[in-house]
Amino acid sequence: MTESPTPRRLILLRHAEAVSPDMGCFSQEADMARRLTPDGEKAAVRCGLWLQSHALTPDIVLCSPAQRTRQTLAGVQSGLSPATIPTVQLCPEIYEAEPSALAAAVRQVPQQARTVLLVGHNPGISDFARWLDSHNHQLDMGFAPASVAVFTMIGSDLVPDQTSWANCDNMSLNLHTFTRP
Cβ distance 54 to 47 under 8 Å? Predict the structure, then answer.
């Protein structure tokens, strides 16, 4: 008997709590340099521990290059098993992205990846989550900092698996879990 493959999972993570922007400094450069607060650093580690405890170790990470998303990712990685080091891609197109840009980034993920972690910003990350599964009312609560949404790709647990990240759209994924560890 053939064992079912691990389903394809897309994990959306909004960066953890960041410091407020300096008054009067609204440049993209200043926004990109915003760091996590001490509470945000702790929340990022909790996210990693939560992912580890739910066997959601990413094969690949798509991360905005902003300081706060990279710090969030570092915290997540510290909570994961040291034996699992995912491939990390810093993707400038994730910063201030619309759902269509986030979907385009996911569609570029290699076929062999089963679990993808996308670390991004609001409002794009919450809009993308609602676009992927507009019927799930859990997402109506809002996407607070350090929130995690786990989606599973429909049919990816079947043998043979004929799904692909290249087909990522609002008909291919369902929300499995939405939490803020």
Answer: no
